[in-house]
Amino acid sequence: MQPEPFLPIVVRWILAALATYRLAELVALDKGPFGIFAKIRAWAGCHPSDLVRENLGELVHCPYCLGVWFGLFCTLLALWPTLGGDLVLAAFGLAGAQAFLYTIGGNNADNGGSR
């Protein structure tokens, strides 16, 4: 007999979508703790002579591209529930909900918000 999942499946999928949104936005747009994501984006910048860094640079600057990869990761967490996976989905899903509400409320980097 399979153990009961920690979160209902609908909640897990909603959290997975919001976690994907937040993770993609975090890496592509935010500075991150100690400026880590800004440093990664600067390092990966435009390097036509280095194919790996050039492709990585395109990836880390594009929230839509990152969304595909983070979406795949969150899909796996949603399909195979574990306590750890549900905690990751809950943490980043709630952060995604907060970021989404903050953005639709008219607060963003263009009008006084900070990244």
Helix amount: 55-70%
User: If you compute it from the alpha carbons, what radius of gyration comes out, rounded to the nearest whole angstrom?
Assistant: 16 Å
Strand content: under 5%
Oligomeric grouping of the chains: single chain
H/E order of the elements?
Answer: HHHHH
* Count of distinct structural domains: 1
Biggest beta sheet attributes: none
Shape verdict: globular
Distance between the termini: 47 Å
Number of helices: 5
Runs in which pLDDT lies below 50 for 5 or more consecutive residues are none
Describe what you observe in this structure:
This protein has 115 residues and is mainly alpha-helical. The chain has one domain (9-104). The chain has 5 helices and no strands. α1 (9-29) runs antiparallel to α4 (63-79), α1 (9-29) packs across α5 and α2 crosses α3 (51-60). The longest helix has 22 residues, at 83-104. The chain is globular. The relative contact order is 0.19.
Secondary structure layout:
Elements: H1 9-29, H2 36-44, H3 51-60, H4 63-79, H5 83-104
Helix pairs in contact: 1-4, 1-5, 2-3
Short synopsis of the structure:
The protein contains 5 helices and no strands. The chain has 115 residues and is mostly helical.
